[in-house]
Design brief:
The structure holds two protein chains of two kinds. By secondary structure, chain A is an alpha/beta fold. Chain A has 14 helices and twelve strands. By secondary structure, chain B is α/β, with parallel strands linked by helices. Chain B has an eight-stranded mixed β-sheet with strand order 6-7-8-3-9-10-12-11, with helices on both faces. In chain B, helix 5 packs antiparallel against helix 8, helix 5 packs across helix 14 and helix 12 packs antiparallel against helix 13. The chains are: A alpha/beta, B alpha/beta.
Chain lengths: 404, 719
């Protein structure tokens, strides 16, 4: 991935903590990765390791605790915890020095401390602003572009055309106002039964996003819905039916149609095939593959089934208890799994081969026995171009030896 | 290997408002002892329905239209609900798909684990009491009729004997359960001492005080006449010193270990001792009025045995023998008459059209006859005689209801055909087809009725021929043993604490750490994998022979799935379980299954060992399943199965998979393929196996995969 292009999505040191009574639960802890345009990025790990939370934080269903999410170079999500921690740390260290210091020295230290705090507070303010108003500039730019376009058109138009144009301008402006940055990211959910409202027809479900965006022309909506239905392998007649009339695979197709009607740049697919039968899984995976090729979609694919992820993704990130432990191109990951958790995960995949299966030895991952992080703290390191592992210095050297 | 379960021609439909859904359409399979049979298929293929039929928990709108499920010589589709109670959960247990919804969220794990044990324990107690009282009453009646028909003194003597037996049997059980409690306590204390000693040596012991307290209590409980009696004083002295040794702290671990070692020695010595025969002791203590004889356990047993035999047992056995002989004789006389009547009744059911009134009267008469021909003192119940009247009745009712139904069906068919023809003649092509006539073959029903009669008559003739071979003496002893077993069922009921100990052992067995702490937690405090382990523990609580796993890992992720599968495999090996494993994921099955049945649209389409199905699969549906699933080396486009399974309200006339099958031939749409034999273990239902069919190779993806696997295996061998 050595290109200078700005990645479509960049996630930096993302943390998402949940309050549970007195303590905090670190669902996602310092996760960084980026996704280039047009690629499929797989996120795997066992249930409860924070992969779904990562997806939901990116799409801003949760407010990030710390870290930044950049989408097309614009910061759409930002947490403030890291800056708060920096202020706290500065207060602690300077506080001790201040107690012992005298006279000028003391004043100098006080000033330094104030500078640090001011700088961090500025960051916090910026983060809060971005978190809340990331769409504002995008919307304003859109609206302005729209205005200019129509001003130009109006100037050249004849008197007779003007009322129609004005009406068109109004609709276009409304749409521009309601089009948000985050709608360029769409999500496909795991459970096709629970994620579709049983009281809405398929047409209403698929068109809901468009309506929120301000599209009021029923004819346009219908046309678009029909096009989407055909794109995902359903037929026009299905539009007036209700979700319960469909099989599991067809329902998941409706979920896909609902996502792609917004013409997103990025799709977050949260275990889209886990709840489906094996034969239907293949249908949905083939569909996603076709759409990716035809529409140039970028997909963040979250799943726990490694054979599916391997088949579908260009790069894979392995998560374990909120941490990203290994990140590599998919062939590389399966060829040279380095982190012990990745190896444990790979050894658990069942294969359709009874002779092999009956002798398969599962590796058990026990973090306490595998790592000694008492003195030497681990971090994400690049072992090979594009292949990152969460390890400390000693392990880094070991892994390098393994690769040779 | 013996067959544990046999399913033959099972056919199940569901009544719905839209029509009859044919969920299972005539499937056959066997389950051997200690093997895993996997049933694989898409949702809606009827695999869960099959398993529910085996457990007798089908939804109320289910219609069992035919076939049989033979377990332990009985047809599970015909037995009564009461009999099913003894099998369901006890002999055949089930693990459900979703551990979240199969556990009650507001009840603690411990209670959910012990609930069935306690309830079943109570039910068993009630049952045993009824059985014991009934048997004693019948025996006394038979003995009186046989020996004392006109001798009131003798009759009274017999009644006394029965009462005495009852009395000392209870004494025996009380003695035995006391002994067992003390023995168990000693055993547990000895194990705990062993563990603690090991930890003290390694310097890794925690909660020493609590555990020494527990050892103290258990050792106290183990002081019993036949467990720790001689050395009770010595043991008590040691136990008194233990708490002080704990209080004195870590420096004195050596001293503590010394004390524990001595205590352990005493307990081990006690455990090695042989237990006396409590049955004879019960009689001796109740009636002799003397203290127990002295001497070694063997001497004591011999002396008490002699006393029992001289005063009671030999007499009782000979009396019981006479009673049994009398009862059997009565039954034989009746059976003789029955055979004659059954043969006579045959003509009633052989007529061209049966007469309703006559049939019912015959049924009534035969029922009465057969009922009285059953020897109620027989230990092994004659299933055929017991179920005869219900089976015959259902066949007769089926005949008469079919007459009505057939008439309606003919009318419907005629009406619909006429309507269709009318439409066609007007030049329109209706979208609907006329559903074919579903008419019951009345002749076949009649033949079934006669078969019932012939079966029983044949069976009775057999019995009558063998009447001289019976050994009534052995039967009397067996009968008394059965009485003893019933009595123990009355006395030894499962208490809450016993159930708890058993539950904790089970939790350990399924791999739950710290079971004592976990016992008091709620389901939400467990992770998905742990929850599924609890569900497995509940299923194992009654020590079943057959375990049905209905998609046990579908809701779990890969690593947990691997753990649960390993657990089921280990338990299967340890307990010699037979497992029916239901899943839609062929990948899971490769690891578990000895044999695989692939189901589609209510039929088994392929059936064979795991190797047969994975390496030499023959049915296009199996090919489709295998190639629609990506593995780690798949790069090309997946072969998804197009379309959806057929609507089972109108099952297709031909092979149900034909519309989605790219290898389908014309005959596939017209006629159902029979099961073709490929090898002794491998069968498949597809016309492609017919000698006249064109030769078709499995899809390239599968061939490639098998080649790849072989290559890998050879590489490993080379290494």
């Amino acid at each position: 991935m050595q290109n200078n292009q700005e990645p479509l999505l960049r996630v930096e040191h993302l943390c998402q903590y949940f309050k549970t009574g007195r303590s905090e639960f670190k669902a996602v802890d310092d996760v960084s990765f980026d996704i280039q345009k047009g690629e499929v990025f797989g996120l795997v790990g066992e249930s409860g390791c924070g992969k779904t939370t990562t997806g939901r934080t990116i799409i801003k269903l949760y407010t990030a605790t710390s870290g930044n999410v950049y989408f097309k170079g614009i910061r759409i999500g930002a947490g403030i915890r890291s800056y708060q921690n920096a202020i706290k740390k500065a207060r602690d260290t300077y506080g001790k020095k201040l107690q012992s210091a005298q006279g000028e020295e003391r004043e100098r230290l006080q000033k330094e401390l104030n500078d640090v705090i001011a700088a961090q507070q500025k960051e916090i303010k910026a983060a809060r602003y971005d978190q809340k108003n990331c769409d504002r500039e995008f919307v304003e730019a859109n609206v302005n572009a729209c205005r200019e376009e129509y001003a130009e058109k109006l100037r050249h138009a004849s008197e007779a055309e003007k009322p129609a144009l004005l009406k068109e301008q109004k609709a276009a402006l409304r749409k521009a106002k309601n089009t948000k940055m985050v709608t360029r990211i769409q999500m496909i959910y795991q459970d096709p039964i629970a994620s579709l409202d049983p009281r809405m027809t398929v047409r209403e479900i698929i068109a809901e996003g468009l309506k929120i965006q301000g599209e009021r022309d029923e004819h346009v909506i219908s046309e678009k819905v029909y096009r989407m239905l055909e794109m995902v392998g359903l037929v026009r007649e299905h539009a007036s039916r209700y979700p319960h009339e469909f099989s599991g695979g067809q329902r998941q197709r409706i979920g896909v149609a609902r996502a792609i009607i917004m013409e997103p740049d990025l799709i977050i697919a949260d275990e889209p095939v886990s709840a489906l039968d094996v034969s239907v899984q293949a249908q949905v995976i083939n569909l996603l593959n076709d759409l990716r090729r035809d529409l140039g979609l970028t997909i963040l694919f979250i799943a726990h089934d490694l054979s599916v992820v391997k088949y579908f993704s260009d790069r894979i990130g392995v998560m374990y208890f909120g941490k990203m432990v290994e990140l590599a191109p998919s062939d590389e990951l399966f060829l040279n799994p380095l982190h012990p958790y990745t190896r444990a995960l790979l050894s658990a995949i069942p294969l359709p081969d009874p002779l092999y299966e009956k002798n398969r030895r599962r590796i058990v991952y026990n973090p306490l026995a595998e790592h000694d992080y008492t003195t030497d703290l681990p971090s994400m390191r690049e072992i090979k171009p594009g292949h990152f592992v969460h390890c400390n210095d000693k392990e880094y050297q070991d892994y390098l030896k393994v690769l040779k | 290997m013996d067959k544990k379960l046999q399913v033959q021609g099972l056919t199940i439909s569901f009544k719905t408002s839209n029509g009859k859904v044919q969920a299972v359409r005539g499937i056959d399979f066997d389950l051997m002892k200690g093997e895993t049979l996997a049933i694989v298929g898409e949702s809606g293929s009827g695999k869960s329905v099959t398993s529910k039929a085996i457990l007798g928990i089908l939804a109320p709108n289910a219609l069992i239209e035919g076939g049989e499920i033979i377990y332990d010589g009985k047809d599970l589709l015909k037995i009564s609900e009461d009999e099913f109670h003894k099998i369901r959960g006890d002999k055949i247990a089930m693990i459900f798909q979703d551990p979240m919804s199969s556990l009650n969220p507001i009840v603690k794990i411990g209670r959910q684990l012990t609930e069935a044990m306690i309830l079943k324990g109570r039910a068993r107690q009630r049952e045993s009491r009824a059985a014991l009282n009934g048997s004693l009453k019948r025996l006394s009646k038979a003995m009186t009729s046989a020996l004392a028909a006109d001798d009131p003194a003798k009759a009274k003597d017999i009644q006394h004997k029965i009462r005495d037996f009852n009395r000392f049997e209870y004494k025996h059980l009380a003695l035995e359960s006391d002994y067992n409690k003390a023995h168990d306590a000693a055993e547990e204390a000895a194990t705990l001492i062993g563990v603690l000693d090991f930890e003290l040596e390694k310097d890794a012991a925690r909660d020493i005080k609590d555990r020494v307290g527990r050892i103290n209590r258990l050792s106290e409980q183990s002081v019993h006449d036949y467990v720790v009696k001689e050395r009770a004083e010595e043991l008590r002295e040691l136990l008194k010193k233990l708490p002080a040794a704990v209080r004195n702290g870590a420096d004195h671990h050596g001293f503590l270990r010394e004390l524990l070692k001595k205590t352990g020695e005493i307990l081990h010595e006690a455990l090695a001792k042989e237990a006396p025969n409590f049955f004879t002791m019960g009689y001796y203590l109740t009636f002799s009025g003397q203290p127990l004889p002295q001497g070694s356990v063997d001497e004591m047993n011999a002396q008490m045995r002699k006393y029992l035999d001289d005063h009671f047992m030999l007499d009782f056995i000979s009396d019981a023998k006479e009673g049994l002989r009398y009862s059997a004789g009565q039954a034989y006389a009746q059976k003789d008459r029955c055979v004659y009547d059954l043969e006579k009744a045959r003509s009633v059911f052989a007529r061209d059209s049966l007469d309703k009134k006559e049939c019912r009267e015959t049924l009534k008469r035969l029922t009465k006859e057969v009922e009285s021909s059953i020897d109620r003192l027989e230990l092994e119940k004659d299933t055929l005689a017991y179920t005869f009247s219900t089976a015959l009745q259902s066949e007769i009712e089926r005949y008469f209801s079919s007459i009505v139904k057939n008439a309606k069906e003919e009318k419907r068919f005629a009406g619909q055909t006429a309507k269709r023809e009318r439409l066609v003649s007007r030049g329109r092509t209706p979208e609907w087809e006329v559903a074919p006539k579903s008419i019951t073959d009345l002749e076949a029903v009649k033949r079934d009725i006669q078969k019932q009669l012939d079966q029983l008559a044949e069976h009775y003739r057999d019995e009558l021929a063998r009447r001289d071979e019976r050994d009534y003496e052995a039967e009397a002893v067996a009968f008394i043993d059965a009485l003893k077993a019933d009595a123990s069922g009355v006395v030894n009921r499962i208490t809450k604490s016993m159930a708890k100990e058993k539950a904790i052992k089970l939790m350990e067995e399924v791999g739950i750490p710290e079971p004592r702490k976990r016992y008091n937690q709620y389901p939400f405090e467990f992770s998905g994998g742990m929850r599924q382990r609890i569900v497995i523990a509940i299923a194992l609580a009654a020590n079943p022979d057959i375990l049905i796993c209905d998609e046990p890992t579908t809701a779990l992720d890969v690593t947990i799935q691997a753990q649960i599968l390993e657990l089921i495999n280990d338990l299967k090996r340890e307990r010699r379980l037979s497992v029916i494993f239901i899943t839609h994921d062929l990948g899971v099955v490769a690891n578990m299954a000895d044999r695989i049945a692939v189901m589609y649209a209510g039929k088994i389409v392929e059936y064979g060992t795991a190797e047969d199905v994975f390496y030499h699969s023959a049915h296009p549906y199996t090919w489709a399943l295998l190639s629609s699933m990506p593995d780690l080396d798949t790069n090309e486009k997946l072969d998804a199965i197009p379309g959806t399974p057929p609507n089972m309200i109108y099952p297709p006339a031909g092979d149900a998979f034909a519309p989605r099958n790219k290898y389908a031939m014309q005959i596939d749409f017209e006629r159902q393929p029979p099961m073709f034999r490929i090898s002794d273990t491998h069968y498949a239902a597809t016309w492609l196996l017919h000698p006249d069919a064109p030769k078709v190779e499995p899809p390239q993806a599968i061939q490639d995969r098998i080649a790849r696997m072989n290559e890998k295996r050879e590489m490993q061998h080379a290494e």
